[in-house]
UniProtKB/TrEMBL annotation:
One of its GO terms (cellular component) is endoplasmic reticulum. The gene is ycf3_11. PROSITE patterns: TPR, TPR_REGION. Keywords: Repeat, TPR repeat. It comes from mine drainage metagenome. This is Photosystem I assembly protein Ycf3. GO terms for molecular function: mannosyltransferase activity. Gene3D superfamilies: Tetratricopeptide repeat domain. InterPro entries: O-mannosyl-transferase_TMTC (IPR052346), TPR-like_helical_dom_sf (IPR011990), TPR_rpt (IPR019734). One of its GO terms (biological process) is protein O-linked glycosylation via mannose.
Length: 492
């Protein structure tokens, strides 16, 4: 028995050593051998789950964490780790419950507090997100992620100076973050903005095969540039021109000497500012881009309706916002007077254009451009002008999903050859390696442009069975992007 116990411990320790150096498959094999000798070894089940989670094998990881907890219900670390796995599966409420259980066992568990704050932040439940992020900082003031969380919460609340303070605390300590891929296919250097406005990259660069070096460019130094790990390609993830300003000079200096392929060059991103899109797309036939003006927040309420070309109703939003966040339609001068202004660097005002289809419904299409080629991503159909896929009734009404399926299968047939030609011309004009276009099609066949930039989110449909029909089309986008990365690296 003593010899077996020594063998179990030796296998467990070897697994830990292998895991520390990134040999995840070998580590998992050691843990499994230890478990075969001692099935009740909760620590081995937990560490096996950690190795599986690092490989992206989340279902197996969840099962192994659950087994560890079955054997050791008061194992706070396993509760926390199970929460991490569930969070990666987008099961946020279950993850939050796990973190609370970990804290019930160990009330001073700073990592569980941090994870709890991060999960609430993803749910946009800002009060508990702030509470738990602050609690974790009180125990460990150097936690980068907790400072990141609070910076994001302050930014969302319009408390820009406080957001900057927390960003400084986070990124002056650490400006480069490395995520190693267990089955590395390539290494990508991501140029990143510390605030909002980055390209959503989670599904574009799968963690299994893409080692990512994320560099916070507001805090970048020449010493950091000289000591960067080796990488194959640069992806400029700063997708919103409104947040690029503080990074422009630093990024330009770095790219001047960079000899690796660069995707989404900053010069092309700069042309996608909302107020520049009308002029950029003006030469494209069958395209309508409403007048959009960039306004100083100090006097925009007084000046807005005096500016040439501006008319009611008008859409107003703060800079740096996307997806309809903080977007307001002003229908009268009184509504403008009553508007409670946001704390923002500037506002955008856009003439509203009614885009109801002949059947009375509003339609918003999204196309994604990979290397300037158009791929359909989704269609939302609803009764309100401000359309979100989640609230447009797409889940409950089969006819809407059927129309979306037709668009995904044959976008040109769905929107018509006139509109399709305009969309394809827009992709060429944007001249970005990755970007997207939100638009509608007017009754006369013209494309009404809502937004065109690199910050468009593309994600697979994992939750709702009725939406799984979309995944083959979404996978085409990911496959095209992966092929683009391979081509650019091979051509370098």
């Amino acid at each position: 028995m003593q010899h077996q116990a020594e063998s179990v411990l030796a296998l467990f320790n070897l697994g830990n050593a292998l895991q520390q150096r990134g040999s995840l498959e070998e580590a998992a094999a050691c843990y499994r051998q230890a478990i075969a000798l001692d099935p009740d070894y909760a620590l081995a089940h937990n560490n096996l789950a950690v190795a599986l989670m690092a490989q992206g094998r989340l279902d197996e990881a969840v099962a192994s964490f659950a087994q560890a907890l079955l054997l050791a219900p008061d194992y706070a670390e396993a509760h926390n780790n199970l929460g991490v796995a569930l969070k990666r599966q987008k099961r946020l409420d279950e993850a939050i419950a796990c973190y609370h259980r970990a804290l019930a066992i160990n009330p001073g568990y700073a990592k569980a507090m941090l994870n709890l704050g991060s999960a609430y932040l993803l749910k946009k439940d800002y009060a508990p997100a702030l509470q738990w992020s602050q609690a974790s900082l009180a125990i460990d003031p150097d936690q980068v992620e907790a400072n990141q969380n609070i910076a994001a919460i302050m930014l969302e609340a319009g408390r820009l100076d406080e957001a900057q303070q927390y960003r400084d605390r986070a990124y002056r300590k650490q400006a480069i973050f490395i995520d190693l891929a267990p089955n590395r296919k390539r290494t990508v250097l991501l140029l990143w903005a510390a605030a909002k406005g980055n390209v959503p990259i989670e599904f574009l660069f799968p963690a299994q095969t893409n080692t990512l070096i994320t560099w916070m460019m507001e805090y970048a130094t020449e010493d950091q540039a000289r000591s960067l790990p080796n990488y194959d390609l640069v992806f400029n993830a700063i997708g919103d021109s409104d947040v690029a300003g503080p990074t422009t000079a630093t990024v330009a200096r770095f790219l001047l000497d960079c000899r690796k392929p660069v995707l989404n060059h900053p010069a092309a991103v700069a042309r996608t500012a909302r107020n520049q899109i009308p002029a950029l797309f003006a030469p494209i036939a069958d395209t309508l881009v409403p007048l959009t003006l960039r306004l100083d927040p100090k006097d925009f309420k007084k000046r807005l309706l005096t500016l040439p070309g501006v008319r009611l109703p008008v859409l107003v939003r703060p800079s740096g916002s996307h997806g309809g966040d903080h977007l307001i339609k002003l229908e009268s001068e009184q509504e403008l007077t009553d508007l409670v202004a946001w704390n923002a660097d500037c506002y955008y005002a856009t003439n509203y254009h009614d885009y109801r289809s002949d059947d009375g419904y509003f339609r918003k299409y999204r196309m994604v451009f990979i290397d300037r080629q158009a791929y359909p991503y989704h269609l939302a159909i609803g009764e309100r002008w401000l359309l979100h896929y989640e609230t447009a009734g797409m889940l409950g009404e089969a006819w809407k999903r059927a129309e979306e399926a037709m668009f995904l299968e044959d976008p040109g047939g769905a929107i018509g050859p006139q509109a399709m030609a305009a969309v394809e011309a827009i992709g060429r004009k944007l001249d970005l390696d990755y970007c997207g276009l939100d638009f509608s099609v007017l009754p006369d066949g013209r494309v009404l442009v809502f937004e065109a930039n690199a910050t468009m989110l593309v994600h697979p449909e994992a939750g709702q069975d009725v939406l799984h029909f979309k995944n083959p089309y979404i996978q085409r986008i990911f496959d095209a992007f992966d092929a683009l990365l391979t081509r650019r690296i091979s051509a370098a």
